[in-house]
Amino acid sequence: MLSVAEFDVLAEQVSNWKRWGADDQLGTLNLITPDVVRRGTAAVLTGESFSPAMSLSLNGPQNGTGVPGRINPVRTMLAVNTPMSDAPDACAYSDDIVVTPTQAATHWDALSHRSHRGVMYNGVPADAVDASGATRLGIETAGTIVSRGILLDVARHLGVDRLPGRFGVTRAVLEAVEESQGVRVEEGDIVLVRTGQVSYFLAGDVPGYRRPVPALDYDAPLFFHERRAAAAIDNMPMELLPSNVEDLMLPVHVLCLVMMEMIQGQNWILEDLASACAKDRRYTFLLNFLLNATPERFLRSTGGLVNPVAVR
């Protein structure tokens, strides 16, 4: 168990505060340069494409118990084949409306999603998020996210379909998977971490999917910081619950969102992509894929729904 004092030392190690200036709202997304995008496009070999996104529906993973008020998307028809006029040959229209939390299904957490000790990234006061939303660090500041992606298949590396509950994906584990697959995470890459946990959700077992989960442990952010990357994972909380840090819930969120300014993704379905990569065993090349993961530009939102596309 890590003490709070030890956690504070770790937080200083990964901090990117003021690295890109006092007014920066991009954080590690600054590292996705045109050269990084070209590196990603050069890695596309077969042209296969995969979407790691969950469908937006009432059958999603949110049931309102984990985070109060966070529900699955509710879609309602506003009009069904309604004539546009009284004319006999008038065309008709159908419309619907969706009400959803922005962290409902596959999503990025915005930098405004978490604060710690009264501040967010770069020392922005926590009250920059108010009843009107995030006046600073909202998801719209992320802009367009297209970069090279690398899948670190932790479950397959350890010879299992799904990691056991509470398995901690540490910095050492990520380094071991990286080495065994013959890939090297580089600056500006987006790292997708597969634990196999989403297989519960795909089988219809939402309670099993929610917890206890294998997830990132407190020192995993050191890996992303050293590699200068962003990350997403195939479970809901991103990190171990409860955490291995004394008196602190969600330390990985604090380290990534508040200190490192690295947006993080949850609820990504990586099974088909992982199977394709394992089938041809060309990990060095085929785990390096172009990733379009731009969030919906909900102004002042603390999260962004996303339908990412991986092209191999």
Which strand-content bin applies to the residues?
A: 15-25%
Please, what is the average pLDDT?
92
Instruction: Please mark out the parts with pLDDT under 50 across 5 or more consecutive residues, or reply none.
Output: none
> What Rg, in angstroms, do the CA atoms define?
20 Å
Overall structural class, as computed from helix and strand content, comes to alpha/beta
**How many structural domains?**
1
Query: What is the first-to-last residue Cα distance?
Result: 40 Å
What CATH calls the topology is Glucose Oxidase, domain 1
Topology, number of strands:
15
**If strands are numbered along the chain, what order do they take across the biggest sheet?**
1-15-13-7-9-11-12-4-14
Helix proportion: 10-25%
Written as H for each helix and E for each strand, in order along the chain, the element string is HHEEEEEEEHEHEHHEHEHEHHEEE
User: DSSP helix count?
Assistant: 10
CATH architecture: 3-Layer(bba) Sandwich
In CATH terms, the superfamily is Putative cyclase
CATH class: Alpha Beta
Largest sheet: 9 strands, mixed
Q: Based on CA inertia axes, which overall geometry fits?
A: globular
Oligomeric state, counting identical vs distinct chains:
single chain
